[in-house]
Amino acid sequence: MNAREPLERVDAHIAGVLGCGYLALLWSGARSLGYTRDEGFYAYAAHELELWFELVRQRGFAAFSRANIDRFFGVNHEHPVFMKLLFALSHRLFHERWQLFAESGTAYRLPGMLMASLAVAVIYLWGREAIGRAAGVVSALLFAFMPRVFFHAHLACFDVPVTSMWLVTSYAYVRAFLKPSAASVIGAGVLYGLFLDTKHNAWIFPFALVAHFAAVRIYEKLRKLPRTGARVPWALLGVAGIGPCVLCLCWPWLWFDTGARVLGWFHFHLGHEYYNMEFLGRTYWKPPMPRLYAPVMTLATVPLVTLALFAVGAFETARSLRREASAERWVHDSLWLVGLAASYAPWLSTDTPIFGGTKHWLPAYPFLCLVAGRGFVLVRSQLRDLLPAKWREPRLQTLALAAACVTGPVVMTLHSHPWGLTFYTPLVGGAPGAASLGLNRTFWGYTTGALVDEINALAPEHATVYVHDTAAQAWSLMLEDGRLRSDLAGTLSLPLSKLALYHHEPHMRRVEYETWVLYGTVAPVAMGSYDGVPVVWLYERP
To answer: 128 is in which domain, residue-wise?
Structure first.
């Protein structure tokens, strides 16, 4: 199929099936996944916004006064508000009003799952336009079935939403770049504003677009090709001019003391505190951070077939440039490569915190998978020449190759749930090999969800449980959802507790030692493990 043919109605149907199917899969696994620390914080912030919604209903424009904006939007104001507004709206409508979700936490998580599903659909559409229908499907599935992406796609957090917004804004931008119109330029600018209002990764995006613009113009000059689009793309001007205006309009916190609050937003993230993260047997908590962290963790967590197809696709892109690829193709390919490089670029610095593991460069993965789609096309063409004539039926060959490429990632991803941050690929020996290498087993305290049955069974009536790395707000979500007995109380005071959780990270070993001393036992009564690797355990005071 000619990849430059316009999208057809069937492509919208395929994108819808991929997106809806992924949403259904995510929703089916939400209850088995415990709540992370950040989800607890964002759910609390969303609850405050729900109170503001109610104030708007009761008092109208009075809810927009500075006092009310500062009160309700001041919670967690170091992060933009777009996703928190969606969390609040989802919870208010789908849990409280219409009662479509029995669990409060699942209602908070729905917008994040929708954003993940949107990313899957858009990867297909962009891949369909640039590399063909089959390759678009493969690219979308390779992204959907990255185990770490699948884990984060469940959460009421910002990491997958900002990945989706980077992708969607890039897709809108490239369409406006190639075929500028007032609607496409404004659309790209508005999307960038929402991208800014999602997470601070968006700060890098304009620099990526400038690098992309330079790459396109240099290629056109070297190949003596006619200029694509305007001398300075209208889409780039739309992003730079409209995006910040949309951010300020959609984030009420910035309506007052705008300059100081924007600077405070920048200062918070540029001077972010350093948390602990284990890497190759050493716990890092302050600079200098290891430059190898991002590439090694990518190799250790992304399925090898996805990385192999990416390598083939990158080779095919380089080969096509030597053979004078069309300017339109280079517009797509260069934006993919620039988006990938820009998402990894912060980890070229040894000052960049690595406290969140692979989630920090998730925006690179849609582009990695689109380039892998190019690799799929090349492998398919080479196999066609190698196979006997009777096996060269195009549809059968494409289906067989796609199944071979996707089956491994699907199996790995489904096996990783709900231990997504403990999963590692066979390249490093899986979870046991990663533990032996000294790669982080877990963080965020979400694995409390793996021991709720044991806590409910073992805890005395009205017992107090030491929650360790689980945030108080995340514990409250599990109580509200009925996962934990309503009479149980969480605490961060070990001496006051009857049961104690311990989430294993090397820098937290002192907590386990303190538990041994206070409880008078070194034997946990329950343990949560993944592929034989202990991750979280529960102690009971005798």
So the answer is: 9-379
